[in-house]
Amino acid sequence: EDDSDVGIAVKTRARTKRPPLYKVLLLNDDYTPMEFVVQILEQFFGLTHAQAFEIMLTVHKKGVAVVGVFSHEIAETKVTQVMDFARRHQHPLQCTMEKE
Ligand code: TYC
């Protein structure tokens, strides 16, 4: 019998999973000054004054807004920077991250 080289070719796709992205969220509170929030958004997120003001107002009105979307490491750094800066100035501003 002939048992040479008979079979089914099965192709598998190389699965290159993209790393998950994380939303950085800013939360509203009653005490942090609006100008302070705008300053943070300019300083740590590279937003223009107009963009920063718009996001600040959205948070103020809606309670929360997405400030940006980043890799886990970058998002974590942003959250730490914002929380440290707010704490140093004794403002209760809250910043968190969540998987997109
Ligand atoms: N609500 C605050 C005020 O009236 C302003 C504010 C905006 C605070 C956004 C936090 O993430 C924030 N002074």
Automatic annotation (TrEMBL):
Residues 17-96 form the Adaptor protein ClpS core domain. Pfam families: ClpS. GO terms for molecular function: peptidase activity. Keywords: Hydrolase, Protease. One of its GO terms (biological process) is protein catabolic process. Binds to the N-terminal domain of the chaperone ClpA. Belongs to the ClpS family. HAMAP family: ClpS. Involved in the modulation of the specificity of the ClpAP-mediated ATP-dependent protein degradation. NCBIfam families: PRK00033.1-2, PRK00033.1-5. This is ATP-dependent Clp protease adapter protein ClpS. It comes from Cognatishimia activa. The gene is clpS.
